[in-house]
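Why does residue order matter? Because the sequence determines the fold. Keep that principle in mind as you read this record.
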Amino acid sequence: MREFTVNHLDVELYVQVHGDANQPTLLFLHGFPDCQQSWHHQVEALKRDYQVVTFDMRGVGQSTWSARRHAYHMDSLLADIDAVINAVVGHDGQVHLVGHDWGSVIGWSFISDAGYARRVLSYTSMSGPHLALMLDWAKRNLQSATPTGLAGALRQGLFSWYVYLFNVPVLPEVMFKLVGQPLWQWLLKSNGVAADDTYLNASQKEVENICLNPINLYRQNPLNPPEVPAASSIHVPVQLIIPRGDRFISDQLFEFYDEYVVNLRRHFIEGKHWAHHSHKEDFNRLVKQFVDTVEQQQSRAA
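Structure:
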């Protein structure tokens, strides 16, 4: 395993690289409240066949935080990913992107931007929508005035209770400083992480490093989202992995994605939000099958 930091803009990003640099590169994007260690089941299973890259996003874990205003807006997050790709595979290199939760949200914006999308060979997304498409979906369902549409919008509105909480000033910070470790452990164990998973061994200080700064993701992005992608504008092959028991992201959020993604596959797994822990074998198999298929298609086209 190699570990290093990438100096980018006003932060230092902590990066881990596992496996053989001559193999296809998988870059994993963690969500909230997580750090790069959330992917340890994927690293161990996939590093024999791929170069596997994880990193702590800005303000998380061993990466430094930024006090700059709007430092956690999508523009900075996308540029961070590009900087990590440059550091691992060079300015002309490409990766297979895998995202969960906020990592998935950010990944959608990455592949929707033509300048960044050229860096991505495939995208596997779980439990995180494109932010603008989520808002567009809610608008469509509310305007439909149908019982099904209104019920779907209401259901996701209830699922998103934490978004409202994190926009309350000061309260989330106090909460994580007072009871961060037990609250974090309870949240993960209730939603797919096994009680004996080593990932849960984080100290109170480590939980604060995971949770406090990224609260700004919720304060700087939902009310200032990216643009809705144009129809059929996403050409990166995309695999959607949808846990049926996710209590935070409704599967209905993705119903219109075929309008935007040219090559889209959907897979359902019987897990909760952290299904890459509870159903790691299924998750890893789907990632491997998808990446290998895309690699074979690339080889035939070359």
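The beta strands are 2-8, 11-18, 25-29, 51-55, 95-100, 120-126, 238-243, 264-269.
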